[in-house]
Design a protein that fits this description.
about 160 residues, alpha/beta, four-stranded mixed β-sheet, two-stranded antiparallel sheet, 4 helices, 6 strands
Length: about 160
């Protein structure tokens, strides 16, 4: 939120942060996907309807931290009673399913940027204890985009 001396405020950026830890990956992936889509849809609807008054188009970011473990790496069985699953999801692990979802969030312009990180429970005390499964969804790209957007409103050293 940008505050001006005259009391005017503008919404300039919104961050949504989520994490998921096992073992219930199957129960939670649909919930996380519905949440991330619903949050973005709500924000863009409010923006379209003028809820943020004179605010410019906000930067919308989503960061997901997923536990990197046997359960998230295991191939997932598909249930296709009515329609075929897209090829990229057939037999894909939860890590890959989330990656595909995050890529779509960026490519469909639902979010300005998405950062997708994996971390192992046993590595939590180590420095830089995460991995980035896709360059397009990297922390560097995410932060570079956010800083670039914010530089339009603030002096960033």
């Amino acid at each position: 939120m940008k505050h001006y001396p005259d009391g005017k405020r503008e919404l300039v950026a919104v961050l949504e942060l989520k994490s998921q830890k096992g073992p219930s990956f199957g129960n939670n992936i649909n919930n996380r996907t519905e949440e991330v889509l619903g949050s973005a849809y709500d924000l863009w609807t409010a923006y379209r309807e003028g809820a943020f008054r004179t605010s410019p188009s906000p930067w919308l970011g989503y960061m997901l931290l997923l536990e990197d473990c046997e359960g998230s790496r295991r191939s997932v069985r598909n249930n296709e009673p009515h329609f075929e699953v897209f090829p990229e999801f057939k037999g894909a692990s939860y890590i890959e399913r989330y990656r595909q979802t995050c890529l779509r969030l960026v490519r469909e312009r639902v979010y300005s940027e998405v950062c997708y990180l994996l971390a192992k429970e046993e590595d939590r005390a180590k420095p830089r204890n995460y991995s980035e499964p896709d360059e397009i969804l990297s922390g560097y790209r995410f932060l570079r985009s956010l800083c670039s957007h914010l530089s339009n409103f603030y002096e960033i050293a």
